[in-house]
């Protein structure tokens, strides 16, 4: 006969085994989705390119060459040509990718931290804490997140950190609700009750037994939130509220390119194409992750 000490450990072991099996099946379903898997490889290449930007880009993003010509493939040493100030377009595209991904991943990390703290606290503690935190969440949900991001950037300034925090702080609401829903579903299960009866603290129960059950749904929402954050950063740049020049941003490059669409169409076409491909790739990865964790069609 198992002792009381062994019961939560055994339950946790069974839960861990089920979680491993669940993740294995999800990964198999994701790999079967060719479009999502190829998009994942493309996104991985983008991340590696962004990290290695100083070594991949032939010039610094602010370096100018007054003797260079605008047109791509015609200027010595500038594969994609230069902008009106003589700055290498290829280098600025690579560094612009770095800016976009840094802001997107940083904003999503900030959003996840806020969402997990609020969702776990509201769902596990309940009562007035739940009502208060969900009241704040409802107010934030009613306020347009993009307008809130504009206000925050205006207040904090146009540094890359300010843009990242503004997007992250304005986009945690949906994930906080998701975490709370998962906590309410899991916190009354037998293994959680067993851990609670053994004197485990609320923090331990939340982080060890409850939060892992929310990872799958959170991964799905995060996969869609990253391209949304990339789009938000570009949108702020189009409004003149993006990162401070001369730091390159695809949004600012697109904005500048619209003024010279007839004289130098590549100034608009190149960043806009790369921006669209990046958004599509991350969105298709999100679709694949969502389908991979969708078990509605499985036999129960």
Automatic annotation (TrEMBL):
Main location per the UniProt record: membrane
Residue span(s) of domain ABC transmembrane type-1: 97-286
Membrane topology: Multi-pass membrane protein
CDD domains: TM_PBP2
Parts of the chain that traverse the membrane: 35-57, 100-125, 146-174, 218-243, 263-285
Keyword Cytoplasm: no
UniProt keywords, alphabetically: Cell membrane, Membrane, Peptide transport, Protein transport, Transmembrane, Transmembrane helix, Transport
Stored Gene3D superfamilies: MetI-like
Top-rank taxon: Bacteria
Gene Ontology biological process terms in this record: peptide transport; protein transport; transmembrane transport
One Gene Ontology cellular component: plasma membrane
Subcellular location: Cell membrane
InterPro entries assigned: BP-dependent_transpt_permease, MetI-like, MetI-like_sf, OppC_N
Similarity comment: family membership: Belongs to the binding-protein-dependent transport system permease family. OppBC subfamily.
The protein's name: ABC transporter permease
Origin species: Phytoactinopolyspora halotolerans
